[in-house]
Amino acid sequence: MMILVLIFCILLLVTLITWAKVNAFLAFIFVALLAGCLFGMPFSNVIASVNKGLGDTLGSVAIIIVLGAMLGKLVAESGAAQRIAHFMHDLFGAKYVTYAMALTGFIVGIPLYYNVGFILLVPIIFSVASSYRLPLLYVGMPMLTALSVMHGFLPPHPSPMTLISVFHADIVKTFGYGLVIAIPAILIAGPIFANTLKKIGPNGSQFNHGTAALPDAELPGIANSILSSLLPVILICLAYLLPLLFGHAPMVKTLAQWLGEPIIAMLLTVIISTYTLGLQKGRPLAKIMEGYASAVKDIAMVLLIIGSAGALKQIFIDSQLSNALAVILVKSAMPPLLLAWLVTAGLRLCLGSATVAGVTAAGVLFPIAQHAGLNTNLLVLAIGAGSLFGSHVNDTAFWLCKEYFGLSVKETLRSWTLMESLVSVIGLAGVLTLNFLV
Questions:
Q1: How many whole angstroms separate alpha carbon 420 and alpha carbon 438?
Q2: What's the whole-model pTM score?
Q3: How far apart are CA 98 and CA 188, in angstroms?
Q4: Where are the transmembrane segments (predicted)?
Q5: Domain range for residue 381?
Q6: Beta strands, E only, 60-164
Q7: Which 3 state secondary structure label does DSSP give 203?
Q8: Counting beta carbons within 10 angstroms of the beta carbon of residue 252, is it exposed (0 to 12), middle (13 to 18) or buried (19 or more)?
Q9: pLDDT, tens digit, for every residue of 376-398?
């Protein structure tokens, strides 16, 4: 009976979000309350579970996501991303322009959320395509691939951070495994796949759409731009290297633990970048703070959706549904990582948003973490890969690609949707391979 209630609640959630167009936060809260009642929980316990789930989930990821949004805003507004793109273009030249675009998206995609990165980098794509009279999709798809992979697979982006928190995964190992999987996924679904798109869509010289770029004189230096984007990763890696290089003295151990906390790494990065990308370039502190406030507004709904998905997950736990699911999932003949990917891919097809699909899957698949010998770091990546599968007409990213690149729906399905599906399947293959090796 509990499984039937679960199926009903998931179908209701999908229907509310996709057909009725109900805000995802409201849909999650409504379904969480209804599910608690249908599972026979006292109403006071239902409210307590919703509060606990929302608070616990946001409490573990909210600061990191907010700091990541602030850093992304600064990287965008300072021109650091633009400088990186120009540098990569000059470094690789016309022959390897698609690899330059992919590497740019890879670096910029660490601090920037997908939609922000897309809007920011579109003018650069048009500029490069126009300069070489190349098809827009051929030039732009590798960059979009990298942005999408970083957004779906790797912290500090919202869905991966939420999954790491829910499944108690190790952020450094997850990031490391994610990089191993992300690189071949970006190369195959990006520059290599882009060769099949040369005849799709207009040339850069025929179509223009995008915001004005900053003058070169106003851009930060390339070293400053790259270090500011990668500093969170550098600091966390440094935390793991310090004990190896200097032993396990108490001071070294304390410093390593301090730097290894994602919140500290992100906070230090924002503080340092505020100076190097802002104050040092002559931008008033008040203007920088306005940008940070705007960044928080941009992700407010994302945070609420993550919190409400945590509320639904807590209802599943407190109603004892997790125990019933655990028995079924643990006894399932299907490998748990493959099962996680399939469930998330199905949610992505139904819900549209990769972030919503990922955090919804966290609640449904929470019992799977009890599977003996399961690597939770790879579980996070399996769900992340599934959350990118089959983007189509119910995904805002689908329409961004269609409208900005002047494509028909059929051409967008042939290019964007197929690219996202390639990334997802390659990600699954990488997860299963790593599971065999590690």
A1: 26
A2: 0.77
A3: 12
A4: 30-50, 57-76, 96-129, 136-154, 174-194, 226-246, 258-278, 299-317, 337-366, 378-398, 418-437
A5: 2-437
A6: none
A7: strand
A8: middle
A9: 999 999 999 999 999 887 787 88
